[in-house]
């Protein structure tokens, strides 16, 4: 029995070592933020195909596209002969089932919060043979978070509305990493207690909440409709700001750019309040 146990242990460690020594060389990424993560940790040369929305870095645009947001082209996937597919479980459950049925090795990420990003960067580094670079990127992200937390921890939060989409009017609520970014930057999300991460709501609800700042990311025209309600403090003082949607909505290393942009906007508003 003891000999059998040792043999099983030896086999396990041999397989683990083999995986570590032979990382996947034909990786398919099925979301933009995962694609960005792979390139950030040095695994870009191993990526052979992506989803249609992946567009960063520029070299990604030349790769075959095997999926869109909702569906997977199984024939195209098989054509690129992947030895690993990386997917996001939050929105790609059906794709996960299809890939499993094709018996293709798969790594499922489940990033939902800011602190998930450095963890999953390290995981990708381990699985792709880039642990060292992944660790450097992860540590940089963690330092960025802590820097902004320390800088803004004693500030009085400014009531803020985050317009995720319009129309329909959609915001970020409880449990979203966008709400976490707002907290980092000293913004008080006026719908942070919503039980949905991304609820739809009426314009009247925003008018009643009367935010001092309104942020949006889609395109500039989306903010103009608020000008018909000058009684909202954010409109009265023209605290209406556009942010870069790719920086804000992709939980990739570029999230630090989104954090910086939002924090600079909130700092600008604070400065204006002091002088008004």
What is the N-to-C order of secondary-structure elements (H for helix, E for strand)?
HEHEEHEHEHHEEHEHEHHEHH
Strand order of the largest sheet: 3-2-1-4-5
CATH topology of the largest domain: Rossmann fold
SS-based structural class? alpha/beta
How many helices? The count is 12
How many DSSP-defined strands? Answer: 10
Q: Termini distance?
A: 80 Å
Whole-number mean pLDDT: 91
Name the overall outline: elongated
Gyration radius, in Å: 22 Å
| CATH homologous superfamily caption of the largest domain | Nitrogenase molybdenum iron protein domain
Domains counted in the coordinates: how many?
2
User: Which architecture of the largest domain would the CATH scheme give at its second level?
Assistant: 3-Layer(aba) Sandwich
Strand-residue fraction?
Answer: 5-15%
Supply the CATH class of the largest domain.
Alpha Beta
| Helix residue percentage | 40-55%
Largest sheet geometry: 5 strands, parallel
Structure report:
With 276 residues, the chain is of the alpha/beta class. The chain has two domains: 2-135, 3-Layer(aba) Sandwich (Rossmann fold); 155-275, Nitrogenase molybdenum iron protein domain (Rossmann fold). Helices cover 46% and strands 14% of the residues. It is built from twelve helices and ten strands. It has helices at 2-21, 32-40, 74-79, 93-101, 116-128, 131-152, 177-184, 203-209, 221-224, 233-236, 245-249, 255-275; strands spanning 27-29, 47-51, 65-67, 84-88, 106-109, 158-165, 170-171, 187-189, 213-216, 240-242. The strands form two sheets. It has a five-stranded parallel beta sheet with strand order 3-2-1-4-5, with helices on both faces. Strands 6, 7, 8, 9 and 10 form a five-stranded mixed beta sheet that branches. Helix 2 (32-40) links the parallel strand 1 and strand 2. Helix 5 packs antiparallel against helix 6 (131-152). It is elongated, with a radius of gyration of 22 Å.
């Amino acid at each position: 029995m003891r000999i059998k146990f040792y043999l099983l242990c030896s086999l396990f460690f041999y397989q683990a070592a083999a995986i570590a020594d032979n990382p996947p060389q034909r990786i398919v990424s099925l979301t933009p933020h995962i694609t960005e993560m792979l390139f950030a940790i040095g695994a870009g040369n191993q990526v052979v195909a992506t989803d249609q929305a992946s567009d960063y870095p520029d070299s990604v645009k030349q790769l075959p596209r095997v999926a869109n947001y909702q569906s997977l082209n199984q024939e195209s996937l098989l054509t690129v002969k992947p030895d690993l597919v990386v997917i996001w479980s939050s929105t790609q459950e059906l794709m996960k089932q299809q890939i499993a049925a094709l018996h293709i090795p798969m790594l499922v990420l489940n990033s939902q919060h800011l602190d998930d990003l450095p963890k999953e960067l390290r995981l990708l580094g381990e699985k792709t043979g880039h642990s060292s670079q992944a660790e450097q990127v992860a540590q940089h992200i963690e330092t960025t978070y802590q820097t902004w937390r320390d800088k803004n921890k004693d500030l009085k939060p400014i009531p803020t509305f985050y317009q995720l989409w319009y129309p329909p009017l959609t915001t970020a609520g409880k449990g979203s990493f966008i709400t976490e970014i707002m907290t980092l930057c000293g913004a008080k999300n006026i719908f942070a207690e919503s039980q949905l991460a991304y609820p739809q709501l009426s314009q009247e609800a925003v008018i009643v909440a009367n935010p001092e700042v309104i942020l949006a990311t889609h395109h500039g025209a989306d903010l103009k409709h608020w000008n018909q309600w000058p009684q909202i403090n954010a409109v009265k003082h023209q605290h209406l700001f556009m942010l870069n949607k790719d920086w804000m909505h992709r939980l990739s290393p570029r999230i630090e750019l989104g954090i910086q942009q939002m924090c600079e906007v909130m700092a600008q508003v604070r400065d204006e309040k002091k002088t008004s």
